[in-house]
Write a structure and sequence with these properties.
With 281 residues, this protein is mainly α. The chain has a domain of 192 residues: Orthogonal Bundle (ABC transporter involved in vitamin B12 uptake, BtuC). The protein is globular and about 55 Å long.
Length: 281
């Protein structure tokens, strides 16, 4: 199946930089990760949960450390630990009078501290972390690519089904409850899915930059869109353009792919302001 897709890419996208198989695989990975991040990013911006996604992404540091220490595939422990942190934050936010940023800050600090303790105890593990810190989309395996595609389908299905409810919850939870929305269920589902998107995307974008993949396309969309639905489509477009242009630029200039993708996304964000002025005339 993948070989058929590669053959189709050669016919539809006959670019020199896409000739190697690893570049085709990298493009497919980014075309799975970027739209998933954009779709969730619109809701992250609406929920004001950028700090939440940052806490989950940095908890991946500990997830990787646990996997290396226990001789388990780090991608498994990374995802499981990220989801656990996401659920813990959501549970404590809903059952405590503490401000949300305080709860997130506690989990953020504890998760990072645990990772540092593990790495300081087993210093030999440090050399394995670089690929997770900066991302390595060129080394994504077929199994990981299949997982990214499955996650993209789940994200688009979830967001497509519950976009209006989630948007209303982000605006006013009390109003959402009066209209019969199951706020707690949606909050838990959203938190788990966001944790999955963040942790899976780390393989392509890296721990240091994955939050930017959520926020920057959504911020660009917010500058351009005139409706909630429009914001979703603008975010998807900005994410896909950033992914394709960033991968091509990283090939030609021999730069880190994840960082180049985010830099292109930031340029699009900067251009969105004059574009917004033109569109609203």
């Amino acid at each position: 199946m993948v070989d058929i897709i590669y053959s189709g890419m050669d016919k539809l996208l006959p670019f020199q930089w896409l000739a190697p198989v690893f570049m085709k695989k990298a493009l497919l990975a980014l075309l799975c990760v970027a739209p998933a991040c954009a779709a969730m990013g619109v809701l992250v911006v609406n929920f004001r949960m950028a700090f939440f996604s940052d806490a989950v992404s940095h908890s991946a540091f500990t997830g990787v450390a646990l996997g290396l220490m226990l001789a388990v595939n780090p991608m498994i422990t990374l995802v499981l630990f990220g989801v656990l942190v996401g659920l813990g934050i959501t549970r404590l936010r809903s059952g405590s009078e503490l401000p949300s940023d305080t709860v997130i800050g506690v989990f953020f600090s504890a998760a990072v501290a645990l990772g540092i303790v593990i790495m300081s105890h087993r210093r030999s593990l440090g050399r394995y972390l670089e690929a997770f810190l900066y991302g390595d989309v060129l080394a994504v395996s077929r199994g990981e690519l299949a997982g990214m595609f499955a996650l993209l389908v789940i994200v688009l299905a979830f967001v497509g089904y519950s976009y209006n409810e989630l948007f209303l919850i982000g605006l006013n939870e009390d109003l959402a409850r009066t209209r019969g929305t199951r706020v707690r269920l949606y909050n838990y589902a959203f938190s788990v899915l966001l944790a999955l998107v963040v942790t899976v995307s780390i393989r392509a974008i890296g721990i240091l930059l994955v939050t930017a993949m959520l926020i920057v396309p959504a911020a660009t969309a917010r500058s351009l869109a005139r409706s909630a639905g429009g914001m979703f489509w603008y975010a998807l477009a900005a994410a896909v353009i950033s992914a394709v242009a960033g991968l091509a630029a990283s090939f030609h200039f021999d730069t880190a792919t994840g960082a180049t993708v985010i830099l292109i996304a930031a340029i699009l964000f900067a251009l969105s302001y004059p574009a917004n002025i033109i569109l609203r005339r």
